[in-house]
Write a structure and sequence with these properties.
Pdz3 Domain; 21 strands
Length: 400
């Protein structure tokens, strides 16, 4: 099975500068929830280089033997380039590849489509070329496959990703293309749309190991062995999350954390085939539902992408020495409220609740901090205090 290993760390890169706990020989299982197992080198590189957002979260497997003695990793890298250009490998992998430079004024002058070819595999093909455009003058033809745009590799990319790369490209645009004999395996139909080949029968789902699908109801079967789930939920009767039940925190040593498939902001639609009656269950009762001893739990999960959340700011006044009245647990999103004392600060009552995630206190961002760091920031926050809160908040009931 293919796997993605760290072969070296560039001394001038952000990993080295920020002293991130990654090292040569680590196997990258996931990055920001995207699985890298069974992916080729180019595809894994594209995935990492084009992650959205400002933060990157790695899930790694560190063997007992790492570094230069690791049997799978490459030899130690002693000379590092000023930057990495993964597109250079394309000319070695595809002998017919050529570099085409086009000056983009308003557009390059091409239309693209997802396609497949027996030599290239799946990728992005040129489906139409505007007359007298830069693309036509550069010699591109319908059926050419685009391997890369500037430094972004498009092998196995989908239409949306490729369209976004081409749209953002400015000035002189470097395309690496291949003119293939016979074009795509499937040409466009008479209506101008790509013909779809008959779908292959889907393999029977295995809810004990299958990952949670994006924007689709997924059944997850987790073996509990009468151990705690290790989660904090948002939702329930009177909750500030008005619709549904969501996961706000997953303890890494709990059953759900060790299973590894669930994420913060996943919605729990059903348990054992029955919809959760969250409108009639208090937050405490919901938690008890997942803390009671069970041999296993079967849930219907929905993972929205992007997550359906709202961000609110709550302000209150705190005197020096007065406790904050919040118990929290920390994850990559911030400090998750697991318990709060009502009435201690009237300005917070009805505006902050269990399962809410505190992203900021005053101007201090709490994302990815340790618990001791968070409590230190809580301790110094006196006078007028501002909390930036994130909570799940879908616009409508989901019944998929």
């Amino acid at each position: 099975m293919m796997a993605c290993f760290i072969a070296g760390i560039h001394p001038s890169g952000i990993i080295a500068k920020e002293k991130v706990d990654l090292c040569k020989g680590d196997e990258i299982i996931e990055v920001n929830g995207r699985v890298l197992q069974r992916r080729c080198h180019l595809n894994a590189t594209v995935t990492i280089n084009n992650l959205p957002g400002e933060k990157v979260v790695f899930l790694i497997n560190r063997p007992k033997t790492v570094g230069k003695d690791h049997p799978i990793a490459l030899q130690e890298v002693k000379h590092h380039a000023a930057f990495f250009d993964e597109t250079s490998e394309l000319f070695q992998q595809y002998k017919e590849a050529k570099l085409v430079q086009i000056v983009k004024i308003e557009s390059i002058g091409i239309m693209i489509i997802e396609g497949k070819h027996k030599e290239i595999g799946s990728g992005i093909f040129i489906s139409d070329i505007q007359e007298d455009s830069g693309a036509q003058q550069a010699g591109l033809i319908v059926g050419d496959v685009i391997l890369a745009v500037n430094k972004d590799v498009l092998i196995k990319a989908n239409y949306d990703f490729a369209h976004g790369i081409l749209k953002r490209a400015q000035g002189v645009v470097n395309l690496i293309v291949v003119s293939l004999k016979g074009g795509m395996d499937k040409e466009k139909g008479p209506d101008g749309k790509k013909e779809e080949k008959p779908k292959e029968p889907e393999k029977p789902a295995d809810p004990t190991v299958d990952p949670v699908k994006i924007n689709k109801k997924t059944t997850v079967d987790i073996k509990m062995d009468k151990k705690p789930a290790g989660i904090v939920l948002s939702g329930g009767y009177g909750s500030l999350t008005r619709i549904g039940v969501f996961i706000s925190y997953i303890h890494p040593e709990g059953v759900f954390g060790k299973d590894g498939r669930l994420q913060v902001f996943d919605q729990i639609l059903e348990v054992a085939g029955t919809a959760l009656p969250y409108k009639d269950m208090t937050h405490h009762v919901l938690h008890q539902r997942f803390c009671s001893p069970m041999e296993k739990i079967v849930m219907a999960i929905y993972r929205a992408d992007p997550p359906e959340t709202e961000t609110v700011t709550v302000e209150f006044t705190r005197k020096a020495g007065k406790e904050l009245g919040l118990s929290v647990m920390c994850n990559e999103k911030g400090a998750v409220i697991s318990h709060m004392i009502l009435g201690l600060y009237p300005d917070l009552d009805g505006k902050v609740g269990r399962g809410d995630i505190i992203r900021k206190i005053n101007n201090d961002v709490l994302e990815n901090l340790e618990l001791v760091q968070v409590y230190a920031l809580f301790q110094k926050a006196v006078g007028k205090v501002s909390l930036e809160i994130i909570r799940p908040q879908p616009e409508k009931e989901r019944r998929e």
